[in-house]
Design brief:
Blueprint lengths: L11 H10 L12 E4 L2 E3 L7 E2 L1 E5 L2 E6 L1 H5 L7 E4 L4 E4 L1 E6 L1 H7 L3 E2 L6 H14 L6 E6 L19 H5 L6 E5 L4 E4 L1 H6 L12 E5 L5 E7 L2 H12 L4 H21 L2 E9 L1 H13 L5 E6 L4 H11 L9 E9 L28 H14 L2 E6 L2 H17 L9 E4 L5 H9 L3 E3 L2 H15 L1 H7 L3 H6 L4 E2 L11 H10 L16 H8 L1 H5 L18 E4 L16 E6 L2 E5 L4
Parallel strand pairs: 1-6, 2-7, 8-15, 9-10, 10-11, 15-16, 16-17, 17-18, 18-19, 19-20, 20-21
Antiparallel strand pairs: 1-4, 2-3, 4-5, 7-22, 11-12, 12-14, 13-14, 22-23, 23-24
Helix pairs in contact: 3-8, 10-11, 11-12, 14-15, 14-17, 17-18
């Protein structure tokens, strides 16, 4: 933790005092370090919804008001940024992503643009040509639904490994699906993982096989861990210096990508105690590029019960790291037939997969409430969401004195109508991702059938009207980190095929902005520090090239980040800056 002074929650009187500062003539003692002027400032603060300028001193906002009012804060050393009418908003908060995976994805093959299986095989062949024998070839982002054609001989819509293995006989290959809920391995990777015709499916996973019983190379859900264990054995042979350098590089790359798209805080949906130790060390050095809200993941209930108290980290002042939550995962993804449904899939005789049992997650909830930790559980299918709500309700009832818990369900993509109101009744945050709806939309009916899709899928308006807090994000690197893209998806529901998915569930632009700022701050117990441009809060600010609150809807995706400011420091300046 830094030794900077604590930023305490603003009282009503302090907030009003802060607003009044903007209207007073400051003296030399109140000269700002940074002033943004001549723009449109959307504060996400009901006390002063819009302004023209703001002043920053140190790492906090000191005044918001008209150009004339803020001019008084300009002194001889003040840096003044002329906005030329551009939009200023609170820094975007990524409500659910995978920070280290984002950094790692910048060092591996990017398969998002692959239009065919043949494209992927060629990318691997090119990588093999540059690699030493035995070196792992890694990639992420493929999605069979985006290919122009299904490869001949495919099983469950995905090819077999033969052509991939043919171009990589001396290099193990592990290619993660864009959802993160499946991966494709070549023959050598399966050999190193000990996967053969007799290897049983692990609990919560599937080794996909062809009609003869041979593994195709596709590892669904927890079956990925078999290949992951082989990779881990390889990693163990590397030096500590190499691993540390790579870790730092991944942190830097993830931070640079975040800042480029206006993200000032990132809710990291699951890191091990070991990773948190490394992030803590970087935080102490002042080497974290953006603020992180990290969820503990991958430890047993017994280990968490022993360690959580020592890992609890509440930010003070301009700190960049928070640890006060736990990530669990009850089911998989709809695209890989891993989401846990109340009924069978329309295109496969399965109700999905249970990745972590109700009993184990209940044990986690008991540990969490004992230590004052938030629980954030991945649930995509309607059955999964119901089961998690049942767990939360049971734990809350057994601990009536525990209040303001803000437990979350991550994704909450498919909800039975009977369960929507339960989010509000239990004060559970729905940590949803706008861009998932428009990305998944074209094939949702294939998985669920048209009627069930209409009733249960991405029912944001029902959730909002029930009074539930929605925390928005992208699940990066599952989707691109761009908040503008997810904002656009939230307000338009327009899919890449040009059609609108259930348009009645659109958010208003105000709701979408709140879901990316103050709601995400609330979902991390940090609304007193960030999420609005309010005097006394952290100076985490984004300047955009267009006014996304008023421009024609179709123009929103072309909006670019001009400046990203974190704690009063300009950490990214775009081409227009």
């Amino acid at each position: 933790m830094s030794k900077l002074s604590l930023v305490v929650p603003l009282t009503r009187s302090a907030l009003l005092a802060g607003v009044l500062i903007a209207a007073c003539e400051p003296g030399p003692a109140e000269y700002a370090d940074l002033v943004l002027t001549g723009g449109k400032v959307v504060t996400v603060d009901d006390a002063l919804p819009e302004a023209e300028a703001l002043a920053v001193t140190g790492y906090t906002i000191t005044a918001v008001g008209t150009n004339e009012e803020i001019a008084g804060h300009v002194g001889p050393s003040t840096e003044v940024v002329e906005l030329d009418g551009r939009l200023v908003i609170p820094g975007f908060i990524e409500g659910h992503g995978h920070y280290m995976a984002l950094g790692e994805s910048k060092l591996t093959l990017d398969l998002n643009s692959a239009a065919s299986w043949e494209d992927i095989v060629q990318m691997v062949a090119d990588a093999v040509a540059q690699a030493a024998p035995g070196e792992w070839i890694l990639g992420r982002g493929w999605h069979q639904e985006k290919w122009t054609a299904t490869p001949e001989g495919s099983v469950e819509g995905v090819p077999v490994h033969a052509s991939l293995s043919a171009v990589s006989p001396e290099n193990p290959v592990d290619l993660e699906h864009s959802s993160g809920h499946a991966a494709f391995a070549n023959a050598l990777a399966m050999e190193l993982a000990g996967i053969d015709d007799d290897t049983p499916d692990p609990p919560g996973g599937t080794i996909v096989r062809d009609a003869s019983g041979a593994a195709t190379g596709l590892m669904r859900e927890t079956a990925q861990r078999l290949v992951g264990a082989a990779r881990a054995r390889s990693e163990a042979e590397r030096s500590a210096e190499d691993l540390d350098a790579e870790f730092r590089r991944e942190v830097e790359l993830a931070g640079a990508e975040s800042l480029m798209y206006g993200v000032t805080t990132f809710h990291d949906a699951g890191s091990s105690f070991e990773t948190i130790d490394r992030l803590r060390a970087l935080a102490e050095e002042g080497a974290l590029p953006i603020r992180l809200y990290v969820m503990v993941r991958g430890a047993s209930n017994e280990e968490m019960d022993e360690k959580l108290a020592d890992y609890r980290t509440i930010p003070e002042g301009n700190d960049f790291l928070a640890v006060r939550s736990i990530k669990r995962q009850i089911d998989g993804a709809l695209g890989s037939h891993g989401a846990w449904l109340l009924g069978s899939y329309a295109d496969m005789d399965t109700e999905g997969l249970v990745l972590e049992t109700v009993e184990d997650i209940t044990g986690t909830a008991e540990v969490a409430i004992r230590h004052g930790f938030q629980v954030n559980t991945h649930a995509i299918g309607d059955r999964a969401n119901r089961e998690v709500l049942d767990i939360y309700e049971k734990i809350f009832a057994a601990n009536p004195d525990a209040t303001d818990l803000r437990w979350r369900i991550e994704h909450a993509q498919h909800l039975h109508p009977d369960d929507v109101g339960r989010f509000a009744e239990l004060d559970v945050v729905a940590a949803m991702q706008g861009v998932h709806a428009t990305s998944d939309g074209p094939w949702l009916a294939d998985r669920l059938g048209q009627l069930r899709m209409m009733e249960t899928s991405y029912v944001w308006r029902d959730v909002l009207d029930a009074g539930v807090v929605i925390a928005n994000g992208t699940d990066v690197p599952v989707e691109h980190i761009s908040p503008i893209a997810s904002f656009y998806s939230s307000v338009s529901r327009r899919m890449n095929n040009g059609e609108v998915l259930s348009g009645q569930h659109r958010m208003t632009r105000e709701e979408a902005l709140e879901s990316y700022t103050i709601n995400n701050a609330y979902a991390a117990f940090e609304e007193h520090l960030k999420g609005s441009l309010t005097p006394g809060k952290l100076a985490d600010i984004v300047v955009l090239s267009q006014d996304i609150m008023t421009i024609p809807e179709d123009d929103i995706p072309a909006t670019e980040v001009v400046y990203t400011i974190v704690g009063g420091e300009v950490r990214y300046s775009g081409p227009e800056g």
